[in-house]
């Protein structure tokens, strides 16, 4: 009886706690995956279609928050959504920073992107191939990769260790109490949708796609490229994120800051850019993966 009461108490307390935020909100991930799906090569589109669960109707963006929904069931996956860098160090190094709280190397969002990229590279190869582990679930690999490519572009997913990427910094977003991390996962995007896009992620995607083919078109090739023939290059994106975290997300923010028009207006361009880069690079990575596979 006491056990049941305790369990109930724990359940109530857990339910009352704010959920730890582990990535762009649903709309941020949806926007990134929708941009990506529109840029897939025929080979990549075919592979993505085959790997998606039949219930998804071939729509990748409907499942780009799947990794957040399984974070309790797959407890081991929680450290794979972010990178912590030492406090006030505005740079990222894989060897120094890509580890979980127990110090296990490679257990961060950059390591996870490399992990699921190499799993997906076995797609289409015969099961006799020594590199293909039949235990890899390539549907899950696709959903994890698509989610983590988004997360690594959220500046505060490569943030300082002691404030957990802004999760412990209390702020007001206009009049509402929240934490800085949540402002970047959700609030800036939601306010943009409300102010500019008739509440819809679809119009936000259209506006970003217009700039990808317009104002940013001369930069897109550079966004897509990886050095040294790599299939995926998450370290570059992590370095950009901590730079944006220092120059933009954390800048001028202290405990109990009120963030409103000035912060929104100056930071929205950063969010726009990171969403666009996330989408373009997810597509480029999937195109490299499935272009190389022996289908
Ligand atoms: C894909 O799913 C998302 C989220 O459920 C939805 O907003 C979008 O309209 C869908 N796209 C297509 C082409 O059905
Ligand atoms: C790699 O993927 C496997 C299968 O999902 C998982 O068990 C493992 O924890 C992953 N490791 C990293 C660093 O992503
Ligand atoms: C692969 O993962 C998906 C999503 O978790 C699951 O529905 C499916 O049953 C898994 N496939 C296998 C063969 O385990
Ligand atoms: C698109 O680019 C224009 C010109 O640089 C800019 O004013 C606008 O805010 C951008 N829109 C998005 C959604 O990035
Ligand atoms: C990149 O890979 C291609 C094909 O595998 C190879 O021909 C080329 O030499 C490589 N380039 C570099 C710089 O490694
Ligand atoms: Zn996440």
Automatic annotation (TrEMBL):
One Pfam family linked to the record: S1-P1_nuclease
This protein's UniProt keywords: Disulfide bond, Endonuclease, Glycoprotein, Hydrolase, Metal-binding, Nuclease, Signal
Keyword presence, Iron-sulfur: no
Gene Ontology molecular function terms on file: metal ion binding; nucleic acid binding; RNA endonuclease activity; single-stranded DNA endodeoxyribonuclease activity
Gene3D superfamilies for this protein: P1 Nuclease
GO process annotations (BP): DNA catabolic process
E.C. number: 3.1.30.1
Signal sequence range: 1-23
Transmembrane segments: none
Catalysis performed (reactions): Endonucleolytic cleavage to 5'-phosphomononucleotide and 5'-phosphooligonucleotide end-products
Top-rank taxon: Eukaryota
InterPro entries: PLipase_C/P1_nuclease_dom_sf (IPR008947), S1/P1nuclease (IPR003154)
UniProt similarity note: Belongs to the nuclease type I family.
PANTHER family named among the record's database cross-references: ENDONUCLEASE 2 (PTHR33146:SF27), ENDONUCLEASE 4 (PTHR33146)
The name this protein goes by in its record: Aspergillus nuclease S1
Lineage summary: Eukaryota, Viridiplantae, Streptophyta, Embryophyta, Tracheophyta
């Amino acid at each position: 009886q006491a056990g049941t009461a305790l369990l109930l108490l724990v359940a109530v307390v857990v339910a009352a706690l704010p959920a730890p935020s582990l990535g762009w909100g649903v709309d941020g991930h949806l926007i990134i995956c929708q941009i990506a799906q529109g840029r897939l090569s025929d080979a990549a589109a075919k592979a993505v279609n085959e790997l998606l669960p039949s219930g998804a109707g071939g729509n990748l963006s409907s499942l780009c928050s799947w990794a957040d929904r399984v974070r309790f069931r797959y407890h081991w996956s929680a450290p794979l959504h972010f990178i912590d860098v030492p406090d006030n160090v505005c740079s990222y190094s894989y060897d120094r920073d890509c580890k979980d709280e127990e110090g296990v190397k490679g257990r961060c969002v950059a390591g996870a992107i490399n992990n699921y990229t190499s799993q997906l590279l076995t797609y289409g190869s015969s099961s006799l191939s020594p590199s293909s582990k039949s235990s890899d679930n390539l549907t899950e690999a696709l959903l994890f990769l698509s989610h983590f490519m988004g997360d690594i572009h959220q500046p505060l997913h490569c943030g300082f260790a002691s404030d957990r990427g802004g999760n412990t910094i209390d702020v007001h977003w206009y009049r509402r109490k929240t934490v800085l991390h949540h402002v970047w996962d959700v609030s800036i995007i939601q306010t943009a949708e409300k102010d500019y896009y008739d509440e819809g992620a679809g119009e936000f995607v259209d506006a970003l796609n217009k700039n990808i083919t317009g104002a940013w078109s001369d930069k897109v090739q550079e966004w897509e490229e990886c050095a040294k023939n790599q299939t995926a290059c998450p370290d570059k994106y992590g370095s950009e994120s901590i730079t944006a975290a220092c120059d933009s997300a954390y800048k001028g923010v202290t405990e109990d800051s009120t963030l409103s028009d000035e912060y929104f207006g100056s930071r929205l361009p950063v969010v726009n850019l990171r969403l666009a880069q996330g989408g373009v690079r997810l597509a480029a990575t999937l195109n490299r993966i499935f272009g190389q596979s022996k289908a």
